[in-house]
Structures are given as structure tokens and as C-alpha cells.
């Protein structure tokens, strides 16, 4: 079934070494949906848009080199 064989090594590590047996059985999801971050972001933003909050060109940072 879906979610069983996908990402087998990651699921094995989650189950055996990280004590996450329930999480290791969840179906695979895209990271932006799996973490629910998409719900927190502006609905107007598209995946192809450049994020102004993350670009260094728009940051007012002092360079102390």
C-alpha cells in the first residue's frame, strides 16, 4: 500500500533509532504540506515566487568584515 515501501531507510531509522513507530507509518507527503507550513504562509504566494523575507538583497544587515 501507499506509504509502506516509500522511503524505507528513513522509516526504518525513525522506528528503530528515533522511537517514532507511529510517525514511521504515515504516508509520504511533500514537506511544505507535511509540516503544515503552507497553511501559515500567505495564500497569495506561489511556490515559484522568490521569498523577500529570505533573500539577502533585501535584508538590512550590517557587514562587519
From TrEMBL:
One of its GO terms (biological process) is asparagine biosynthetic process. Transmembrane segments: none annotated. InterPro entries: Asn_synthetase_domain, Rossmann-like_a/b/a_fold. It comes from Adineta steineri. Residues 53-65 have a biased composition (Polar residues). The keyword Thylakoid does not apply. Residues 46-65 are annotated as: Disordered. The keyword Transmembrane does not apply. This is Uncharacterized protein. Keywords: Amino-acid biosynthesis, Asparagine biosynthesis, Glutamine amidotransferase. It comes from the Eukaryota.
